[in-house]
């Protein structure tokens, strides 16, 4: 029996004010038998093990599993999360299989695990999900629509500005801080 999980298993996390409604670990573990652009989107290195998307609607910080070193991946991701927490930055995290961030995958082969972190505008109070939410699944490109009317009348051009607006300013603000974090190779106190 194989100990490998199916390629279509995804994990998502919404931080407090990152669309988690109460202070708890709000994880999503689900099976989605469709490919998402986030799994193959091209990236460029920001600093150290941290990459950023070249052209993706919602800018994010991206990491990958290298040399099967899960501990190193976790250390790198936790450095950024600790920085977010120290600055009280709302965030979302998504884990999926995907292609290598350095572009060395052959024929689009899913040969790594990608971990994506979005710094985002905080969300407070009652959630408005009348059309769609702007939480981890939606940022990753999996956008559940809650009514037939909206499904029939909504387009990608309607969704992208909303999703992009959740992360763009925070990404720009956090990018130099994260770059320094990995260039200085210091942990956040």
Notes on the structure:
- The protein has helices spanning 70-86, 136-139, 148-153, 156-183; strands at 9-14, 26-31, 43-47, 50-53, 61-64, 90-98, 112-120.
- By secondary structure, it is of the alpha+beta class.
- A seven-stranded antiparallel sheet has the order 2-1-6-7-5-4-3.
- The radius of gyration is 16 Å and the shape is globular.
- The model has no long low-confidence stretch (mean pLDDT 83).
- One of its GO terms (biological process) is glucose metabolic process.
- It comes from Cherax quadricarinatus (Australian red claw crayfish).
- This is GDP-D-glucose phosphorylase 1.
Largest sheet: 7 strands, antiparallel
Q: Estimate the helix proportion, in percent.
A: 25-40%
Low-pLDDT runs of 5+ residues are none
Number of helices: 4
Widest sheet, order of strands: 2-1-6-7-5-4-3
Q: Briefly note the structural class of the backbone.
A: alpha+beta
Our count of domains comes out at 1
Span between termini: 43 Å
Protein name: GDP-D-glucose phosphorylase 1
EC number: 2.7.7.78
Function: Specific and highly efficient GDP-D-glucose phosphorylase regulating the levels of GDP-D-glucose in cells.
Pfam families: GDPGP1_C
């Amino acid at each position: 029996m194989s100990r490998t999980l199916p390629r279509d298993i995804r994990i998502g996390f919404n931080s407090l004010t990152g669309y988690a409604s109460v202070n708890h670990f709000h994880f999503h573990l689900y099976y989605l038998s469709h490919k998402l652009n986030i799994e193959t989107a091209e990236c460029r290195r920001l600093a150290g093990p941290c990459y950023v998307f070249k052209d993706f609607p919602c800018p994010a910080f991206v990491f990958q599993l290298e040399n099967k070193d899960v501990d190193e991946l976790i250390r790198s991701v936790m450095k950024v999360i600790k920085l977010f927490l120290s600055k009280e930055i709302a965030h979302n995290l998504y884990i999926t299989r995907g292609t290598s961030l350095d572009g060395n995958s052959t024929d689009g082969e899913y040969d790594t695990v990608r971990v994506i972190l979005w710094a985002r505008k905080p969300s407070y109070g009652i959630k408005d999900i009348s059309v769609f939410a702007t939480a981890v699944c939606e940022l990753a490109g999996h956008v559940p629509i809650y009514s037939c009317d909206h499904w029939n009348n909504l387009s990608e051009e309607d969704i992208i500005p909303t999703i992009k607006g959740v992360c763009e300013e925070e990404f720009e603000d956090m990018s130099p801080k994260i770059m320094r974090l990995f260039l200085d190779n210091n942990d956040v106190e």
